[in-house]
Amino acid sequence: MSLRQRLIAGLAFGALAWLLWTGLDNLEYVDEVSFRPLTGEARSNPLYASRLFLKGMGIPTQTVESLQSLNKLPDTDTVLFISATRYNQREEQFEAILDWVKRGGHLITRSVLDWDSYATDNEEHNAEDTAVDTDNDKPNADSEIPTAPPDTAANSDNDNPAASADPLQLYLGVYTGKAIPFDEKDAETLQLPEADKPLEIANDYYRAIDLSPDNDQQGLTQVKLNDRNFIIHQQVGKGLITLVSDFTFIENYNIDDYDHAEILWHLVHANNRSLQQPAAIWLIHSEEMPHLFRIIWKHFWPFCIMLGGLLLIWMLRVSHRFGPLIPKEGEDRRNLLEHIEASGNYYWKNKEQAILIDSTRHAVQQQLAKRIPAWHAMSNDQQAHLLAERVGIDEQQILHLLHGDIRHKPHEFTETIKQLEHIRITV
Fold first, then answer.
1. Quick one: 261 and 390 in the same domain?
2. Do 243 and 348 share a structural domain?
3. For residue 334, which of 342, 326, 345 has the smallest C-alpha distance?
4. Helices (DSSP H) in 221-322: which residue ranges?
5. CA-to-CA separations, 250 to 51, 202, 204, 311, in angstroms, rounded
6. Around Cβ 194, how many Cβ atoms within 10 Å?
7. Per residue in 389-426, is it b (16+ CB within 10 Å) or e — as a string?
């Protein structure tokens, strides 16, 4: 290698080293977290990630389309997980699920907020506004203000205990209370009976599950969050009903936060004190009926495939032609003389020969008046003489054609019509 080649190689190596050093010194690899929208089933199923988690833990888990389509209950070793609001649940279905729990099933569902709770919140909000407004207009100390006795107010609270309109919560003797405070913390802890340590749950809007005054609390286990009931386990017969304030913490975007997945794992094992796996889990997240076409495809998919194949064959059949295009044949026009002859036969059979002969003679007279000046001023003999010279027909025959009586002879009638038409065209 010559000296010149060595210098060129050295300069190239130095330039490459300088570029690498500059890039490493100025460039930095940074991970950016970008929002990725949900796709597929996860868009409509908020418990899709929970199903994948439970399947990953070795528990057979499936999604039921809707609470309305739950016509057949599973075996009692299966966990029935209902996150729907149950507003449209049928009474027969509720009785069937309750009987299934008594035989050893495990039902996990959420608490339902009654409509009157909204009215209560609005009344409290209006009461606070009224109190603020009346602070600026306080009465004098000498004025008498009627007040209710303290024991009367206490008795009014006990005489009208809160009651839920939901059949399940009414059966359990519970109702949805006020919001659970988080004291501006990002997360709080709760202690599950089966867990060996407190588990963290993210800050969110949860309402407490309060017990009705007539609840005897037999077979009842309460899991508190900030001294308010967040989960209750109620033993019913051989089975268990688990009522949770809300399932927001195990939805697709939240299940991987804090200890949410572990809380879900303990919930589905609450009826198995030895922490044995349930046989299966059915997840129900909707109470609406599935679309009609989905039901048809699910139950009649062979018929749908056959119908689609027949439709495809029909479309192929009507969209292709075989051989050259056959031109459309034009309609045959009948000869005018044939039309006249047929019309004459018709009028003759119906004893209306005068109608056709008079109309034909009138048309001939109009045509002759246009072609021959002073035609109507001529006498019949003059007209016959003039026409005989032009069309080459005898004068007597022309007089007979224009003025004779020919209604009683069929052949003569037809011939007269033909000759009149000949005169009309010739002149």
1. no
2. no
3. 342
4. 260-268, 292-319
5. 10, 11, 12, 45
6. 13
7. eeeebebeebbbbbeeebbeeeeebbebbebbbebbee
pLDDT at 107: 92
Residue 135 lies in a domain: no
Residue 287 gets the label, from left (phi > 0), alpha (psi -120 to 50) or beta, of: alpha
In which residue ranges of the chain is pLDDT below 70? 1, 115-164, 272-276, 289-290, 321-323, 325, 328-334, 336, 340, 344, 407-408, 410
**204, 186 contact by CB (below 8 A):** no
Read off the pTM: 0.55
Q: Which structural domain range is residue 262 located in?
A: 40-116+162-287
Do residues 106 and 73 lie in contact, with contact meaning Cβ atoms separated by under 8 Å? Answer: no
Predicted pLDDT of residue 139: 40
Is residue 271 within 8 A of residue 81, CB to CB? The reply is no
**pLDDT for the residue numbered 8:** 81
* 412 belongs to a structural domain: yes
In a domain, 181, yes or no: yes
